[in-house]
Amino acid sequence: MILFTKTDCGKCDYVKSHFDLNTLGVQIDELSDTNADALADLAFYELVETAEKQLPILVTNDEQKITGAIKISQFLRSLA
């Protein structure tokens, strides 16, 4: 799974601090002008427009796209 985040994003920080993402198998891709790989991943999943409006975004192993800290938190809790 991939979690798209950015710096200085309170909702992104909430998800990152309230879950053991490594244990859950979640890779964090922090979006920035200097992280071309994260931007390429975002484009691959056709999420550029979504990311302009809302972060964080979680892409699950079955490529389900979940946006927003509340929905992502609910999904991650369901895995535990």
Q: Would you mind describing this structure in some detail?
A:
This protein is α+β, with helices and mostly antiparallel strands. The protein has a single domain (2-79), classed as Glutaredoxin, CATH 3.40.30. It is built from 5 helices and 4 strands, in the order E-H-H-E-H-H-E-E-H. The chain has a 4-stranded mixed beta sheet with strand order 2-1-3-4, with helices on both faces. The longest helix is centred in the last third of the chain and has 11 residues, at 69-79. The protein is globular and about 35 Å long. The relative contact order is 0.24.
Low-confidence stretches: none
Q: What profile does the largest beta sheet have?
A: 4 strands, mixed
Which outline best applies? globular
| Top-tier CATH class | Alpha Beta
- Secondary-structure element series: EHHEHHEEH
- When the domains are counted, the total is 1
User: CATH superfamily, please?
Assistant: Glutaredoxin
CATH architecture: 3-Layer(aba) Sandwich
Labels describing this entry:
single chain; 80 residues; 20% strand
Write the layout of secondary structure elements.
Blueprint: E1 2-6, H1 10-18, H2 21-24, E2 27-31, H3 36-44, H4 48-53, E3 57-59, E4 65-67, H5 69-79
Parallel strand pairs: 1-2
Antiparallel strand pairs: 1-3, 3-4
Short description:
The protein has 80 residues and is of the alpha+beta class. The protein has helices at residues 10-18, 21-24, 36-44, 48-53, 69-79; strands at residues 2-6, 27-31, 57-59, 65-67. Strands 2-1-3-4 form a four-stranded mixed β-sheet, sandwiched between helices.
